Amino acid sequence: MYWEIIELANGEVALRRADSNDDPLLVIRFSDEAKERLKEQRLDVARAMISAGVQVATEIESGDDIDELDDDEVMVH
């Protein structure tokens, strides 16, 4: 099974099966401020985010321990 990263008509970045037009597995939406700051690198950042997420999901599915970040490394709002 192959996955593809696509940009949707509304500017969101999505991950979906390459052989399907079904709803994406996930969608990343950048704020206008983030778009302005990231400019052309927005898709690179989305690709890195998706890659990290897939890696963690794979580790979880395989039962491997994942490296946890300290609470002060990531702020969740």
Task: Explain what you see.
The protein is 36% helix and 17% strand. The chain has helices spanning 32-38, 42-62; strands at residues 3-7, 13-17, 26-28. A hairpin with an 8-residue loop joins β2 (13-17) and β3 (26-28). The chain has one domain (3-62). With 77 residues, it is an alpha+beta fold. It starts with a strand and ends in a 15-residue tail after the last helix. It has two helices and three strands. Strands 1-2-3 form a three-stranded antiparallel beta sheet, with helices on one face.
Write the layout of secondary structure elements.
Layout: E1 3-7, E2 13-17, E3 26-28, H1 32-38, H2 42-62
Major sheet size, sense and barrel closure: 3 strands, antiparallel
Share of β-strand residues: 15-25%
Radius of gyration (CA) equals 14 Å
Helix/strand-derived class? alpha+beta
How far from one another are the termini? Answer: 34 Å
Total strands = 3
Order of strands in the sheet with most strands = 1-2-3
Shape: flat
Count of helix runs: 2
Regions with pLDDT < 50 over 5+ consecutive residues? 71-77
Helix percentage range: 25-40%
Secondary-structure element sequence? Answer: EEEHH
Overview features:
77 residues; 3-stranded antiparallel sheet; flat
Short description:
By secondary structure, this protein is an alpha+beta fold.
